[in-house]
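Lab notebook, page 48
Experiment: co-folding of the full assembly
Goal: obtain a model of how the components sit together before planning crosslinking
Operator: M.T.
Materials (sequences as entered):
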Amino acid sequence: MLKFYTKRCKGCGICAHFCPRGVLEITELNKSAIVPGKENDCISCGQCEMRCPDYAIFVKKEGA
Amino acid sequence: MKSMEELVNEYFRPNRLPHLWCPGCGNGVVLGALLKAIDAEGLAKDDVAVISGIGCSSRASGYVDFNTGNTLHGRALPISTGLKMARPDLNVITLSGDGDCSAIGGNHLIHAARRNIGLTLVVFNNSIYGMTGGQYSPLTPQGARATTAPYLTIEPSFDILALAEAAGATFTARATTYHVPILVDVLRKGIRHEGFSIIEAVTGCPTNFGRQNKLAAPAMMMEWQKEHGVMKAAWDKMDPAQREGKFPIGVLSERTDLKEYTKAYDEIIERAQSGKEAASA
Ligand SMILES: Cc1ncc(C[n+]2csc(CCOP(=O)(O)OP(=O)(O)O)c2C)c(N)n1
Ligand code: SF4
Ligand code: SF4
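Observation: model returned without errors.
Model output:
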């Protein structure tokens, strides 16, 4: 499950670029968000969280 | 193992986010890796001092809840040295930009390394002076564009780890903001190392380096790191032609046979005190 801290996000696009499943996009408001229809595609790999320079996206492992 | 969200909540001072670094600036990744390393090493907040110089990267010290000092341009190491001499029990972590550390502070770097004083120096190498608008530093790659080199730099750059090792540093390592787990690993090892350790964190400044050098997209700066950083074990097997333009990552040198400076100084104190007693006897 993805958790966004939208106020911290600067829309740099690093998370969307490194997501192996194309789950993320940068919206017109310059914020990271889930691509409509891809809500269930996240595999919790943590690539986005690991390289987000702004601590604006976190991955919660299921059951954790 | 705490999650990154927990680490941010625990170690960031309240109300400091969003931080002031530009969109896509890698400094936040380096600082996050440092928090992971400090936490994994189990260090208490009060036992850690984070001392920085001046620059965008040096703002990092002000965000985190340790004993901190955002000091003078180029002078992070002398101030860290004084602190370590007064409080050898502290884990002193020094943060410095490539300009801070290799230009105005270059002399301090070689002497801190020569003394083998037990500091952990983290160099945020974004290849440029970020804060002042993109002037080239001694670590800017030759042939790059900078505001002070509109026709491209003609100066060869330092390999800051080779420089520090030659000067006496007993632990040298490098990683990038693409290679986060390796960055955390070398930070942990550098913190644990007793003598002078230097960790070069290769990071992107999309605003002042990227835009001038056809790497404006932050993710592309990380892709560049991915392509050019080579694990030391693989690097050691490469010939000079294969190494061209690339750089090794991981722990590059480590030695434990040399005395750490505050330990050597303890012996001086002991000698001086026993001498005084002998003289007065
Ligand atoms: C004595 C002194 N000289 C010059 C400056 C101006 N100055 C501030 S930051 C900086 C360079 C910063 O570059 P770097 O150390 O690479 O850090 P970055 O901003 O890229 O993180 C300079 C020259 C200063 N603050 N003090
Ligand atoms: S990497 Fe972080 S700051 Fe950048 S767009 Fe994604 S969530 Fe936002
Ligand atoms: S100018 Fe460069 S180093 Fe400074 S905050 Fe912006 S991206 Fe980061």
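Interpretation: Chain B has one domain: 4-274.
Next step: discuss with group before ordering constructs.
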